[in-house]
Amino acid sequence: MIGKEFPSEIKEYIDEKTGNVVKQLTSNGSNNFHFYFTDNSFCKGDQDIYFLSDRSSERPAIYNLFKMNLETGGILQLTDEPEGITPSFHTKTPEGDIVVYVTGRLLKKIEISTLKTTVLYEEKPGIELGHPHISADKRYIGMARNEFVPIKRGANYRGFKETMYATKKGWITLISMDGKEVFDVFQDTHWLGHFQFSPKNSSLATFCHEGPWNLVHQRIWLLDIRSRSPQPLFRQGEDDCIGHEFWTNDGKIFFDNRRKGHDGTITVYKTQATTQNLNTSGQIPFVGLANEEGKIIRQIDLPFYCNHYHSNNDNTLLVGDEIEDLVLIDMSGEKATIKTLCSHHTSWNTQQTHCHPTFSWNNEKILFTSDREGTCNLYVIELPK
Predict the structure, then answer these.
(1) What confidence tens digit (pLDDT) does each residue in 60-100 have?
(2) Which residues share a beta bridge with 229?
(3) Are strands 116-122 and 127-128 parallel, antiparallel or unpaired?
(4) pLDDT tens, residue by residue, 347-377
(5) Which long-range contacts does 311-315 make (Cβ < 8 Å, 24+ apart)?
(6) Nearest CA to 112 among 138, 82, 62, 76?
(7) Any transmembrane segments, and where (predicted)?
(8) CA dist., res. 71 & res. 43, Å (int)
(9) How far is CA 94 from CA 70, 119, 142, 213, 225, in A?
């Protein structure tokens, strides 16, 4: 029920590996997970977070939107969608005044000050809505849309490769914040995803050709909204396996290159990411930073194989998620150095169990998800002084 309040569920524990204090934010037996790291669950000021939970649903995995005050732990329900919000298909403004999400074939907007919900767009049959993203000037929502292909998708990347090969039509679409304008700015013959506006320039965005990283010929594309002209960002060679790109807070594009043969999948078999270099090709993975013109301005070897990265405000420190631990990677020097922050022990079974560690806006806290207790819960740890 919209407006329903839940008491604090916060409890603390000492991490068994590092001795650092970790706060478990949710613990009532429901499934809870935060926004994707490209959207940041923290609201500016770092007092509140938004997250999805099935705590008010009649059956598991029907997710709605909730807000938590990190000081009191109090939780407020913001939506009550019968079909639930499609996992990972939701975004917000940095301030948290507007949240946009997909439920079924509808794109909706909720204004947090009034909890008023508006339908902005209804998708046609045969096309699937993607992950929305809000422009910095708050005028438009952008997203990738793709033709529907009858392939079952599921945990552990079931159907991932097959969907890539089957999808032949994709669109980048903009929808005005009042829902009165809807127009395509680009059409392609690939499965499109990961659309993100620049946080500084509302006329620039990135999107990707989706699929296993070792099979996608060119992952990242930089799109000028005005000219509707995309250009490849980091022109890939045969051995490049690139993904998990995001815009940094200062308007650069971060990307991860796992090198030859890495498909980018993350599964319960835990064969993906480890500090032990599994790459037998002799190639060293690296991460890169590009400016808004698509020019690579920094590239640093990173043989640590974390699953996801998120950067602090000056791009000198990364938080990453290894198989069992969260780690901090110092990139301030010529060579990257790594240390363990805490254990997470998530199963990696579905996208909702992925840690997706995310810095708060002031970089003092890191938020992550884990199902170490059987259900998905939210955790926060303060950055060591």
Answers:
(1) 999 999 999 999 999 999 999 999 999 999 999 999 999 99
(2) 224
(3) unpaired
(4) 999 999 999 999 999 999 999 999 999 999 9
(5) 311/248, 311/254, 311/359, 312/359, 312/363, 313/249, 313/250, 313/359, 313/363, 314/250, 315/248, 315/250, 315/252, 315/254, 315/289
(6) 76
(7) none
(8) 13
(9) 16, 21, 16, 29, 21
Cβ-based burial of 271 (10 A; exposed 0-12, middle 13-18, buried ≥19): exposed
Task: Measure the CA–CA gap between 161 and 142, rounded to whole angstroms.
Answer: 25
Q: Map the chain to HEC letters.
A: CCCCEECCCCEEEECCCCCCEEEECCCCCCCEEECCCCCCCECCCCCEEEEEECCCCCCCCCCEEEEEECCCCCEEECCCCCCCCCCCCEEECCCCCEEEEEECCEEEEEECCCCEEEEEEECCCCEECCCCEECCCCCEEEEEEEECCCCCCEHHHECHHHHHHHCCCEEEEEEECCCCCEEEEEEECCCEEEEEECCCCCCEEEEEECCCCCCCCCCEEEEECCCCEEEECCCCCCCCCEEEEEECCCCCEEEEECCCCCCCCCCCCCCCCCCCCCCCCCCCCEEEEECCCCCEEEEEECCCCCCCEEECCCCCEEEEECCCEEEEEECCCCCCEEEEEEECCCCCCCHHHCCCCEECCCCCEEEEEECCCCCCEEEEEECCC
φ, ψ for residue 379, nearest 5 deg:
-135, 150
Render pLDDT for 242-290 as a digit per residue (tens, 0 to 9). 999 999 999 999 999 999 888 888 888 887 655 444 555 678 899 999 9
Per-residue pLDDT at 44: 97
Residues 6+ apart with CB under 8 A from 122: 105, 106, 107
Whether residue 33 is predicted with pLDDT greater than 70 in this model: the reply is yes
Contact present, 41 and 362 (Cβ < 8 Å): no
Cα–Cα dist 246/296, whole Å: 14
Q: Measure the CA angle with vertex 235, ends 329 and 285; round to 5°.
A: 30
